[in-house]
Every structure is written in C-alpha cells, then in structure tokens.
Design brief:
Blueprint: E1 8-10, E2 15-19, E3 24-29, H1 31-37, E4 40-44, E5 51-52, E6 57-63, E7 67-71, E8 76-81, H2 84-87, H3 91-94, E9 103-107, E10 117-118, H4 119-127
Antiparallel strand pairs: 1-2, 1-10, 2-3, 3-9, 4-6, 5-8, 6-7, 8-9
Length: 128
C-alpha cells in the first residue's frame, strides 16, 4: 500500500479508508484500534460481491481481548479482500495502515468520503 496517514479518511468507529483513485477504496482499522484490541487472532472478511451501505457491519475482527464489528466507511460492493489475513491476522497489528488492510470496496458514491474525518480530525477526536 502506498501513501501515509495523511491520505486516509476515518470513521469515528476507527475504520480508515484510502481512495485508490479508480472509484474504489481500501479499508482497514486505525493503529489506535489495533492497539486497543490487542493481538489479532481471527478476521472474518466480507465475501466478494457483497453490497454494503455506509455504516453497515461488514466484517469482524477477533483479538485476544474482544471481537469487534467493522463498518463500511462508504457504500459499495466488495471488490477484493486481503487473503493474507487468513493465515496471518497479526498483519493488522504490525502494519494496520498498510499490509494489514482488510478489504476493497467499489464505491457506489465517492462523495461519501467527504463526510469522513481527515487524519488530523481523527487524531483530535481521540484526545477528546
């Protein structure tokens, strides 16, 4: 994955989204979330072709501490999943903003990205 946190948008439920530029977005969880959850032990990714509306629960992450739903940051169709997580869910812990991405959505409306927080806004929300 290219780019740093500055090119990401965030939901208050700790998902990040990166606009790939071709009408699709890559989705993962924030570094803050992976630290709070602890070591990942299992990740249930959505099935290819599934459609989700913005805010729908679409995946589940299980750690040594808890299981947590992952919510679609934008509406769209699942176009890809990070199959490497099946064998190594710990990628989320070691590189949450890169190799630990979860899935890619073909966005139904890229304008939904405008309603998400910038990296700076997300960082400020963690301080509140």
């Amino acid at each position: 994955m290219s780019g740093g946190p500055g090119d990401l948008k965030f939901r208050d439920s700790h998902e990040w989204v990166r606009d790939v530029g071709d009408g699709s977005v890559t989705v993962g969880i924030s570094d803050h979330a992976q630290v709070a959850l602890g070591d990942m032990v299992f990740i249930e990714l959505p099935e290819l072709g599934n459609h989700f509306s913005q805010g729908d629960a679409c995946a589940v992450i299980e750690s040594v501490k808890a299981a947590s739903d992952i919510y679609a940051p934008v509406s769209g169709e699942v176009a890809a999943v990070n199959e490497a997580l099946e064998d190594d869910p710990g990628l989320v812990n070691t590189d949450a903003l890169g190799d630990g991405w979860l899935f890619r959505l073909k966005a139904a409306d890229v304008n939904e990205l405008d309603g998400l927080m910038s990296a700076e806004q997300y960082a400020a929300s963690l301080e509140d």
